Amino acid sequence: MRSQDIPLPERMRPKSLSDYIGQKHLTEKGAIFETAIRTGILPSLILWGPPGVGKTTLARLISQEMDRSFFTLSAINSGVKEVREIIAKAEKRGMFDQGNPILFIDEIHRFSKSQQDSLLGAVENGTIVLIGATTENPSFEVIPALLSRCQVYTLEHFSQNELEEIIQQALTKDVELQKLNIHIKEKNALFRYSGGDARRLLNLLEIAISRESGAEIVLDDEKFKVVAQNQASRYDKGGEMHYDIISAFIKSIRGSDPNAAVYWLARMIEGGEDPKFIARRLIILASEDIGNANPTALVMANNCFQAIERIGMPEGRIILSQCAVYLASSSKSNASYMAIKEAQSEVARSGDLEVPLALRNAPTKLMKELGYGDEYQYSHDGEGNFIEQEFLPKEIEGQKFYEPGKNAREEQMRQFLKVRWKNKYGY
Q1: What is the pLDDT of residues 256-277, one digit of tens each?
Q2: 23-154 in CATH: which number?
Q3: Does the model's pTM come out above 0.70?
């Protein structure tokens, strides 16, 4: 095949780990993959990250540099039969190879339970080293038995500096682009429309270049914008639209617009999105964006998820619609979300502060002699089931993390706390 017939992202696929850009937390000296290659010890693992960040490339490079046999399956068009055939080949190949063969499964989250079950024995006894790639949270999409046998590593979107490096590498090293006089005046639109996806970045760059002619090819934001808009594709569960539309859906509910929420929901349903993925996001939103402004929202969202599991599609779309409309039409508060965010920031700042003696557990005689729990007062012994005492470490006494939202329910909570704590926390 002529090089010009091969897409630019494929032409630019790294040939060695040293050529790989990004994911330094996995590839730099001392990190998991560099160590695996150096020591020859590789556990089964799951690579979790958005599209276009190099999951497949990493798997191939690891296999290549460790000199391991490499088998690959796509969860879209492979079943238990194909899995067993690969395992049988791996068993035969393993007798002659220095290391266990690697089986790479793209989009492993689309494997059914029975398909994932068929991998367990081979992963357990080391017949294969499994490398699974997924864009979805493996805690939800990979069965516990298989997940417990794998290490999970998260891949991140490329930073702007890394995308810049990828562009320069393409312009200076690609056999086709080297032949052209290319001048890129502006890249902001290219970065924005690529969304941290290197594959999309290179595709947009190649298409923009192909539209130009002349001795010098000059590209700017307007030209990249035209290309990106012309390339807008239908909903893709594994692609950029997947993230854009779920983002629009969540923001519509957060913005109390049930009409927009139902529209984006319909886009996902018509695109074949996993209804459980949508339902999980509704559970998160019910707590993050509504919280105690309407505690029933979390109950509603959780019931929605359970109903989807029992009913399935297409009827499940009605349940999703009911829940989305309810959440969009509910009062909003992010107070609980901000409270845990502030508390985590404090933990990061102050470290592991000592638990006050009064609050410590005293299961042994020695602990009781040391005064563990001595000054604790049982709240239910007080009037209104309350006794004022200190529950925070001494260094941060009186610090407030939870600020009730300005809505009817949380105003009631504010008054409740104000009566009990008076001015201590400024309620």
Answers
A1: 999 999 999 998 888 888 898 8
A2: 3.40.50.300
A3: no
